[in-house]
Amino acid sequence: MSPDRPILEALGRLKTRPATAPRPIAVYDLDSTLFCTGPRNLAIARAFSEYRHELRPFVEQLEAERMGWNVMADLQELGFADQAILTELRHFWRATFFTDHFVTMDSVYPGAVELVKAVQKTGCLTFYLTGRDDPGMRQGTLQALGSAGFPLPAEDVMLRLKPTWEEDDLAFKTHLFDELRQLGEVVLVFENEPTNANCFLRAFPTSTVVLHATIHSPDPEPLAPGVHVMESLAGDWIQGSDLQ
Ligand SMILES: [Mg+2]
User: 5-36+107-240 sits in which CATH class?
Assistant: First the structure.
């Protein structure tokens, strides 16, 4: 089966949906689903290397689009072994990664903007549901969405961020499931975390849940058989959409 098939089929179903059906909702995670956090991680490593010059030759070898989940592990793979400096970097990363300033440095995955717009065009409510926190990252998130060309919060576009940084990402998302059910019918979900994707499929078994296979946190659940995997959001599906 073409990896684009789930999107094509979902778009087709949305276009022929009866007017009396509940409002369709498309849920999008942001980090590592629509946005690539590699440039943010690289910018943080570069900023930190201004204080710890020993890191510079290693940071210079990092490539934004090829970075993993953990920038400390990326540097270790390049041969950097000073644990004390890596621990300092971990603290610096935690203090900077979840901030308005650094979040605007993310890049957008190819096809992401086109996907969200194509789905919106079918009448779907756009629901950005992210583990980013409201106090630290709302302004940067709005700026990043706007400058990338994503639909911004409006009557048919919602953005939900965690009320506090400390709250667990998945617990926050599951707390919003009832709100989603009241708004309409979840028909599409895009996630990069296998555990989250499984959770959405269990909660909304008639929806199309897509795992964007980028990077994810360590030790995920095995992916449920019903979750569709896409290596890239860019693809042939766009040929079949009305965006042409
Ligand atoms: Mg994510």
Answer: alpha beta
